[in-house]
Amino acid sequence: MKDTTFKSRSLMPKCFFLIVLLSLSCFIFVFSKSAIFISKSGQVIQVGTGPNSEISPTLKIRPGYTSYDNYIHHQLQKTTNPKLRKIWTTRDWERKIHVFTQFFSDLKHKKLLSNESKALCVGARVGQEVEALKRVGVLDSIGLDLVPYPPLVIKGDFHHQPFDDETFDFEFSNVFDHALYPDKFVGEIQRTLKAGGICVLHVAISRRSDKYSANDLFSIHPLIKLFNGSDFVYTRKVDGFGLDTEVVFRKKNAII
């Protein structure tokens, strides 16, 4: 009887250790499938880094961000760089406006954009694309960026646009590669687009983006998957300041 009691007691620490080990393994597994970032403002941002870090083999999230604020700080290093901002507003100003004007004129010719469109440029920096829209006749245009540039660009985070549902007829962006959470980036575009509204993205497929990019895209298929509330219209090759592919979507009447 004593031997049996002794054996039972000796097994208890082993069983306890096994339970702790299994619990820890489960915790690590769950944690690896999700990330919770808390910004300085107290906003909780939770994203599944399992499916989101590789939505498909052709869309990968770059590692290294310890918090959402860390990601924002990294993006601001480029956006607030005084040398870059001087170049954007002087030497590059007219050159980029000229190129954007050609892009938007082509979209008008294809009936995807009109003078009556209410337009948003997502991640517009100092607003060359906004100015280009206005020059081709789309006067009701505004840009969104972490750093405002009045009157062309207002302050905002493209992961959480500061606009009501179904506000815009047209949205353009060439900063998809800067999205830490591509699903949120696309979700906000689809939320703020009106039914039948057009989204045009310029992305890099054939070459890698710069050190401030948060993701790498290797085909347009992940975009088609992410735009689950929109119809794929077309894609074509472009030469847009290091971005080589234009992808166009039209929002459906109802988000799936």
UniProtKB/TrEMBL annotation:
GO MF entries: S-adenosylmethionine-dependent methyltransferase activity
Protein name in UniProt: Methyltransferase type 11
Transmembrane region(s): none
Domain Methyltransferase type: 120-201
Keywords: Methyltransferase, Transferase
InterPro entries: Methyltransf_11 (IPR013216), SAM-dependent_MTases_sf (IPR029063)
PROSITE patterns associated with the record: PROKAR_LIPOPROTEIN
Recorded superkingdom: Eukaryota
GO annotation terms (biological process): alkaloid metabolic process; methylation
PANTHER family given in the database record: F21J9.14 (PTHR45085), METHYLTRANSFERASE TYPE 11, S-ADENOSYL-L-METHIONINE-DEPENDENT METHYLTRANSFERASE (PTHR45085:SF9)
Pfam family, one: Methyltransf_11
